[in-house]
């Protein structure tokens, strides 16, 4: 643990926390159950969140910004999408502070209710033709609520999962939480793929609303599962320490500035790179290349399946070489593939586009798979929820407007070019690669939990 002067980092002469007398013994079955509960809730969170991204590319530009030209409408829709990323750091700070003070479990229950409700309400929202400018305003407000909730969800779920696991298994079980992203993508892409078979008139009238309304029953299932998850044993032990100082509102900034900066950079590729290779590619392929929108959405389904496979293997491989090093090499691979991937996309062939999306998302997922493990090992337990949440979501805020930036730069040229997307992907990948290697030398050692096997 850290002392009042701030968190101490493994690699700087700090001994592992915990001792034989205060070890908490867990069995593998219970750890898997907790990790599964964290995964299910996170899958719903990302289903709701990614659904908005697809709708921004395919629906909102036409139904909520109808008084703008095609490029301006796409930019406005992506700007609304990006607003959620700006709310995420605030949500990370609020939920993280509560999670470090009152517990991981109750805060995660609040976050899942908030995002499920906000998403369902989007499905009930009248469009611009019905209520005019109030429609995009209401859409933006609901997106802000989504962003606040997601800001507290991922960091809490990751913290809960790793704090139930012994150190040698943390990369594996942290990757279970990461599975929520591709599963949520798969669910949202599949939902849109199903309604896109409708005639355009019916799709615009009510079809696009169905995936959003589905958030209500999905919320009920996820909430039931999450209610059955126990509080983190590490947090429970912190509460039992009579001399443990209360976490201050800004302690994570005052005492954890260095690990927080590393965390932001480490999370950059998993968030920003994904939205370049998913959300922006959907818009670019349909509006610039003229590819049928349903075919591109189907390509994102294939990429989500690839992502699931990569996460499973990366989580296990990270136990051998360390999550930070694996993150670094994943970033280098993504940067090396950037130009070849967009060369495939620019052919306009749906087969080439599908291959490019799968390869691009697959390569950046190597880094994304271990993001939870890397970030959680940068902070001591009393700052972990706040630090992990803020690191991830500040990265989200910085990278959330990448589709908007790429669209704006593309619109500045006489002939549409993918050069902006290539450059952005390379920069983001190299930032995360550097952070991964640095993080591998700056790990907080926390061995309170041990396996019974």
TrEMBL record:
It holds the Pfam family MFS_1. It is a multi-pass membrane protein. Keywords: Cell membrane, Membrane, Transmembrane, Transmembrane helix, Transport. InterPro entries: MFS, MFS_dom, MFS_trans_sf, Sugar_transporter_CS. Residues 34-444 form the Major facilitator superfamily (MFS) profile domain. It is found in: Cell membrane. SUPFAM superfamilies: MFS general substrate transporter (SSF103473). One of its GO terms (molecular function) is transmembrane transporter activity. The keyword Coiled coil does not apply. Its main location: membrane. The chain crosses the membrane at residues 46-65, 71-95, 107-125, 173-196, 208-225, 260-283, 295-314, 326-345, 351-375, 387-406, 418-439. This is MFS transporter. It comes from Corynebacterium propinquum.
């Amino acid at each position: 643990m850290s002392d009042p002067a701030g968190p101490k980092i493994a690699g700087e002469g700090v001994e592992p926390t915990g001792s034989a007398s205060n070890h908490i013994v867990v069995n593998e079955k219970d750890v898997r159950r907790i990790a599964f509960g964290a995964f299910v809730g996170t899958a719903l969170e990302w289903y709701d969140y990614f659904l908005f991204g697809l709708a921004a590319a395919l629906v909102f530009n036409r139904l909520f910004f109808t008084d703008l030209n095609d490029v301006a409408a796409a930019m406005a829709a992506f700007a609304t999408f990006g607003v959620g990323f700006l709310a995420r750091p605030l949500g990370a700070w609020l939920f993280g502070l509560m999670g470090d003070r009152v517990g991981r479990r109750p805060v995660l229950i609040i976050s899942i209710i908030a995002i499920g409700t906000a998403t369902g309400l989007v499905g009930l929202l009248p469009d611009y033709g019905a209520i005019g400018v109030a429609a995009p305003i209401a859409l933006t407000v609901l997106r802000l609520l989504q962003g606040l909730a997601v800001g507290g969800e991922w960091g809490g779920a990751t913290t809960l999962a790793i704090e139930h696991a012994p150190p040698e298994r943390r990369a594996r079980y942290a990757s279970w939480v990461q599975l929520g992203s591709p599963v949520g993508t798969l669910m949202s892409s599949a939902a849109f793929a199903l309604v896109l078979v409708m005639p355009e008139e019916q799709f615009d009238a009510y079809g696009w609303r169905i995936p959003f309304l589905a958030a209500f029953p999905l919320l009920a299932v996820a909430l039931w599962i999450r209610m059955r998850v126990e509080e983190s044993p590490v947090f429970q032990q912190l509460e039992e320490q009579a001399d443990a100082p209360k976490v201050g509102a800004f302690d994570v900034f005052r005492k954890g500035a260095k690990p927080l900066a590393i965390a932001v950079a480490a999370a950059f590729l998993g968030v920003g790179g994904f939205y370049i290779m998913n959300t922006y590619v959907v818009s670019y392929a349909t509006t610039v290349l003229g590819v049928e929108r349903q075919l591109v959405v189907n390509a994102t389904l294939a990429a989500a399946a690839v992502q699931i496979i990569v996460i499973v293997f990366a989580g296990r491989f990270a136990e051998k070489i360390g999550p930070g090093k694996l993150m670094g090499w994943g970033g280098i691979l993504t940067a090396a593939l950037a130009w070849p991937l967009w060369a495939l996309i620019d052919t306009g062939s749906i087969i080439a586009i599908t291959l490019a999306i799968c390869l691009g998302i697959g390569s950046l997922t190597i880094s994304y798979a271990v993001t939870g493990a890397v970030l959680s090992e940068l902070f001591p337990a009393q700052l972990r929820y706040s630090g992990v949440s803020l690191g991830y979501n500040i990265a989200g805020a910085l990278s959330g407007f990448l589709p908007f930036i790429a669209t704006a730069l593309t619109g500045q040229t006489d002939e549409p070019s993918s050069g902006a997307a290539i450059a952005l992907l390379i920069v983001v990948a190299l930032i995360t690669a550097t952070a991964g290697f640095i993080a591998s030398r700056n790990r907080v050692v926390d061995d309170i939990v041990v396996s019974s096997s």
